[in-house]
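step: validate -> pass
step: tokenize input -> pass
step: predict -> running
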Amino acid sequence: MPAYLPTLWSPTNTLPALSQEEIHLWDINLATTPEVTNLLSTSLSSKELEYAHRRPEKLRSRYIASKGYLRHLLGKYLGIPPGEIRYIFGALGKPALSPEFKSGLSFNLSDCGNKGLLAVAYGREIGVDLEQLPRNVNERAIAQKLFSPSEANALNAAEAEKLNESFLACWTRKEAWGKAIGRGIHYPMKNTPLCNQLSEPELQYCFANDNWLLRQFRPDSHSVACLVGSGVDWKMSCFRWTLMTATGAQ
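step: predict -> pass
step: emit ->
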């Protein structure tokens, strides 16, 4: 049965100071009003807007909210308008801030349904993944194909009522790890055992002679998530941004 670290989300309308020993984690509500969606869209790049307008209306507003809040919060960290944020992309598409900003700031975003999670840190690689509960998937078939034999066996031993949650807890570990190393899901999952002890919400993992820390948590009663960061000397600080309103954005 999965275990989770406790999380206390602190509502705030000011940006907390980010230390080298922290990863800031932001809970973002993507179910915005039309007014907020329009305001957020003004900061998006032409490519982001083009992509947004190719999506169905419901998905379009979520996409705009996700990308707009990302720009809004990164702009707060950098002290620049959100529309001036520029990205570069890794070989498999992981975004990062353009080197021109010389900030040392890293970030990673995950969204599912109406919820988004944004992780921000200085001087370390990070990855976050979020899944809503429940999710209609063939847990055992996917585990057999993608997970290590020991992970698949552990999942097969899960109680029926905990199978979906156990699978998704493991999946968030796998995907957050892949995002942290810039590979997404395109890495040898079978050879990367991260889920043998789901009852332990923290896992230290060594990769390429570097130590990494994995932390499993539940943002709310309807979702499961995982945060991965390079190094083992960091703490997770959780916030909920409250400055956006139906009538304005700052």
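step: describe -> Confidence is low (pLDDT under 50) at residues 245-250.
step: cleanup -> pass
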